[in-house]
DNA sequence: TTTTCTGCAAATCCTTTGCATATCC
DNA sequence: GGATATGCAAAGGATTTGCAGAAAA
């Protein structure tokens, strides 16, 4: 549960970040953000739309799409797996890790012994059967970093 | 570059796995698999289709979709980020990690100090600007593991 | 008043499905 | 010969886009 003061703080941060990026405060944006903060299930656009729609029957689905995308752009929220992109496949079924460029979407394999030997935390073992550990480094590849 | 003998070995493994899962060997499947093994770019369905199409002009796009999906099911290849699923968002922008259930698609946050303190490998630093490290444990959640 | 956002509708992209025919074992 | 795979066409789901009117700064 989030305390009232924490919620208030989140809300001011949100307003500050919007201001910084010249985003106007609209009731749609506020409602969507509030609904997001409550969510513990890493919801998709449709999920958020359904929840927001109860309080705000006139909101349209594409506003939710646009808003979530904008929020992610300015770092108010994050996108998680999946990325809404097309499926991609890897013929290398051995242990390895990925660099993922956020700009050009390239994925490059790399090896690292520390990452290979990560142990599953005890606390996780009790509630989850882990098949595999993925380590993904997200950022910019050499070419994209130049620009 | 993959040596001829390594390529031959991959091919026998491939045939063995197909046999085990009662998959027939068709020229489409062989061609798709060969094209995949050569790929270093974690291609999508459309990519594979274009490459295969040059050698095999009669192949259809949906065969490629079906085949790649089948290959992933039997573990001949792996799906990587993205998963072809809808976008999902996380209001928690702080450091944390994810458990991802492969069956029900739930994503649950967890904390772990070891994972929090992973260092970016030196070899990576030279060729990549890392924004964030993601650790994702994939497997089955408690409910799905029961079945 | 100017810039930005929203809702609507249409378009686009990715993926799956049903079915008849062709192919593999 | 029997089971399975393929190609075609159509459907389905997710996401984006253009545009005119509405709302925020």
Number of domains of chain A: 2
Return residue spans of chain A where pLDDT drops below 50 for at least 5 consecutive residues: none
Look at the structure and give the CATH class of the largest domain in chain A: Mainly Alpha
CATH architecture of the largest domain in chain A: Orthogonal Bundle
Here the CATH topology of the largest domain in chain A equals: Arc Repressor Mutant, subunit A
Mean pLDDT of chain A: 92
Largest interface: A-B, 69 and 69 residues
Class derived from helix and strand content of chain A:
alpha+beta
From the spread of the alpha carbons, the general shape of chain A counts as globular
> How is the quaternary structure best described?
homodimer
Percent of residues in helices of chain A comes to 40-55%
Q: Note the gap between the termini of chain A.
A: 42 Å
How many runs of DSSP E, i.e. beta strands of chain A? 5
Percent strand of chain A equals: 15-25%
State the strand order across the main sheet of chain A. Answer: 4-3-5
Count of helical regions of chain A? 7
- Summarize the biggest pleated sheet of chain A: 3 strands, mixed
Write the element-wise H/E pattern of chain A from the N-terminal end onward. HHHHEEEEHHEH
At the fourth level of CATH, the homologous superfamily of the largest domain in chain A is Winged helix-like DNA-binding domain superfamily/Winged helix DNA-binding domain
Describe the protein.
The structure is a homodimer of 147-residue chains. Chain A has 147 residues and is α+β, with helices and mostly antiparallel strands. Chain A has 2 domains: 4-90, Orthogonal Bundle (Arc Repressor Mutant, subunit A), CATH 1.10.10.10; 97-146, Ferric-uptake regulator, C-terminal dimerisarion domain (Dna Ligase, domain 1), CATH 3.30.1490.190. Helices cover 45% and strands 20% of the residues of chain A. Chain A has helices at 4-20, 27-38, 45-55, 61-73, 113-116, 122-125, 142-146; strands at residues 78-80, 88-90, 97-101, 107-110, 128-141. Chain A has a 3-stranded mixed sheet. In chain A, helix 2 (27-38) crosses helix 3 and helix 3 (45-55) crosses helix 4 (61-73). The longest helix of chain A is centred in the N-terminal third of the chain and has 17 residues, at 4-20. The model of chain A has no long low-confidence stretch (mean pLDDT 92). Strand 1 (78-80) of chain A pairs antiparallel with strand 2 of chain B, so a sheet runs across the interface. The structure holds a DNA duplex (25 and 25 nucleotides).
